[in-house]
Design goal:
The structure is a homodimer. Chain A is mostly helical and about 190 residues long. Chain A contains ten helices and no strands. In chain A, helix 1 crosses helix 2 and helix 7 crosses helix 8. The longest helix of chain A has 27 residues. The termini of chain A are far apart. The first copy, chain A, binds a DNA duplex (18 and 18 nucleotides) through helix 3.
DNA sequence: GTCTATAGGATGATAGAC
DNA sequence: GTCTATCATCCTATAGAC
């Protein structure tokens, strides 16, 4: 356990509060109080509330982008690529579960450059999954249903996984990966 | 086109703004300005900001509860019941697409009684889907995978459908129902 | 039904002492 | 690195004129 820097401590405290009430309902005073200091002291470590949000969101967004780049440049069938996407998505969810609510619900409160960066990364991510699905359909690995519905179903499930992971007493990650791949690829009937 | 009451107009204007920025980032001044009046005028039609949120959320939550009650009391196999759930979920999404962001992201800002009512309805809803899935597994209609993963996958997809329905140029509802049932039940490979 | 004026409090952020 | 004190602004909501 290396001692977390004060800045890191602010970010993690804030992410816990954002998770419960959302970015706009959490004040600098709330964050400071949760750390046992005064709001003005926070400004010795960060430039403002915006920096907390953008650090939180962009750090995780870059993880997703990295994971996707590895999958895209890997060899294998389209189905294998989707399996890899599901798996690294679960890994990131487990590692950054506290930050994901902000990424899903508070990204619109980013300003200018940060907002643009995030939206670009998110669009690229989605587009990469779309390409994998379409290649899979072309190669007859994936059923030729509406590709957007398949894309939407997979991404919706993965993006809100953090809501369930915590609630269900932190399921075993490998069991979760196996069941998730199975449910999303083979369906339930 | 019957002329919407002023109160209804407030609710729909607010839901549009909540959708873009979230409950806490929208002020009474914002809502009033979008209607071309002053914030103080709003209070002649509603008791406060909280009433807007609770009307918005509880109206839709009751629709989901009604839909679920009809499915639960209907005859048919478990798979048929899941199909019905998917279908009425899509119907509600199409009808109330402006209100769903608040239901998904701002319910925690409800107060006391309203919050309790909402959480109860939401838990009951989830529990009813869970029962249908477990009955389906017992009857060998549904594969005996982790029931919670199946539950989570279906509900995640349905609950965030509003995000996609608008973006994709409002897909035809019947095509959407058919493809969604197919993807969620039979999978993609 | 809408307005102006305003109360009463919370908010993000800064200055300067220790 | 934290504090107190404070600023300027925004917020929800009310009172009362028209």
């Amino acid at each position: 356990m290396k001692p977390a820097s004060r800045k890191t401590e602010i970010i993690t405290t804030a992410s816990r509060l954002f998770k419960e009430k959302g970015y706009n309902a959490v004040s600098m005073r709330d964050i400071a109080q949760a750390m046992g200091i005064k709001a003005s002291s926070l400004y010795n470590h960060i430039s403002g509330k915006q920096e907390i949000l953008s650090t939180l969101i962009l750090t995780v967004a870059r993880e997703f982008t990295n994971g996707m780049e590895q999958v895209v440049s890997s060899k294998g069938t389209s189905v294998e690529k989707i399996e890899k996407i599901i798996e690294f998505h679960i890994d990131i969810t487990v590692t950054y579960s506290e930050a994901l609510p902000a990424l899903n619900n508070d990204w619109m409160h980013l300003k200018e450059d940060d907002l643009q960066q995030f939206v670009n990364m998110r669009d690229d991510y989605e587009q990469n999954v779309r390409i994998v699905i379409k290649e899979g359909i072309k190669a007859n690995e994936i059923e030729a249903r509406h590709p957007e519905v398949i894309l939407f179903s997979i991404l919706s499930t993965l993006r809100t996984l953090y809501l369930w992971y915590e609630k269900r007493g932190k399921l075993d990650v490998n069991v979760l990966k196996r069941d998730m791949v199975s449910v999303l690829l083979q369906g339930i009937v």
